[in-house]
Amino acid sequence: MPESILHNCRGSYLAVRRSLPWLDATYRPDDTPAFARVALPVEHETIKAAVLRPNSAGRIERMRAESGPLLWRWIPTESGPLSGLEPAFRNLAECKLPLAVRQTDLTFHELELFALTHPQLTVILESGPRKLLYHIQHIESKMLKCPNLHLATYNFCNWLGIERLRDKGLLKRLLFGSHAPRYSPDAAMGPVIMSALAWEEKCAIAGNNLRRLLSMPLKTTPAQKWKAGKPFNVDAHTHNITPGNRSLFGFPTPDEDFSPADWVANLDHLAIEQVFLIPGNALLDIDASARKCVAPLLQHAPDRFRYMTVFHPAMNETQCARVAAELAEVECVGLKIHPSAHKLEADHPSFAKAFQLAIAAGKAIVTHSWEISDYNQTQKMAHPGRFQKHLAAHPEATLVLGHAGGRPSALEDVVNICRKFPKTVVDVSGDYFDNGVFECLTGRLGAEKVMFGSDVDWVDQRCNLGPIFASRLPDNELLKILRNNARRVFLREE
What we know:
By secondary structure, this protein is an alpha/beta fold. The chain has 2 domains: 21-213, Metal-dependent hydrolases (TIM Barrel); 233-491, Metal-dependent hydrolases (TIM Barrel, Alpha-Beta Barrel), CATH 3.20.20.140. Helices cover 38% and strands 14% of the residues. Strands 9-10-11-12-13-14-15-16 form an 8-stranded parallel sheet, sandwiched between helices. It has a 6-stranded parallel sheet with strand order 3-4-5-6-7-8. Helix 7 (161-167) links the parallel strand 7 and strand 8 (174-175). Helix 5 packs parallel to helix 6 (136-145) and helix 8 packs across helix 18 (461-470).
């Protein structure tokens, strides 16, 4: 039964995907995929782009006549400072052509000043190599102040982020962008396809907003409705916060105001049967009870929600006793550790207690895992290779590498540790949007070791469901990733 539901759900996703009039604002043909052997080819319509330079003024109109509609990009290392490009900006405005800038190349204050100083120039904000996730309030504020500012949706993965901006009256300034072929187009397509937006609104984001900016004819396509069907998925890596909290993580999340009924409606819309919650309050507060943080959800829909308790390496005996008591509950399916958030290396002796508590309760351990980041130094504390020490000392432990190492540079360490320790598996949650990541991990580890996770309430569940539904993997392997593995690892089902 679940396999047929999955087949229909996947078919519905692909039908909507085929029908929407995609036009990619952030196609980057020179940025090759890390997993090139299994990456999906780019099949949707893209737009050509050129780098703006001081000598571009005067060439802009000629290049448009020769090549058709073009996007122009400001890249500081190639374009030079903004102050030296004023003639080109005037030329772009006269030709009604947009200029794309990366979020990491300007502060938000500089972006606002630039957009307001050039009101006739259409400015498109793109993601740089770092997350847009944390900046939704800044993006929203600048778009509301600057009528000429648009947003390309590549890496705009905030939970219900497009709906938030739509509700602010900004839908016409959202432009589909994928940064393909390096990243999966479906990470950006998924939130549009599986949204409850009207068909015209979906078409606008998918491509017609960009066509309008480039004076191209709009495309009308046959409407297709997303139909999830009966819930069957299990989201193995999720978060929640206690309602009423404001910006616990430093940026807003929808569940600040969600009721339990809102949670269930969201799950139903995406065919998600269960979520395993890691409460944000417990993750950040050593004294917060994970059980209390999820109690209203458990009471409202006990079959839909399970939770994980959280271990802090600085816990005293009383706090560890609380964690042990929560681990003993049927509703508690695992123990979460987060070396980066708690600023302690994963191979530190203090984490041995977490392994002991989880093993005694017969529950899995879920950890944050990530690459060695060049700009976030705490991430190295959770590098996959650091977990070998505790796994060697506790071979009976079941460890889930959350985020599967986070980025391609950690892949070989993820593969090595999963092969060396048979009870170690991965969930692909967060913003690991590399093209072919599910195919790569399944091919290297086997479908039995890969689980779907979203990292909601941070990352939109649709960003990770989209690449799964669009993958080359057969339905029987997808069912393991979307359901069976999580129920085996966390619920001990065979």
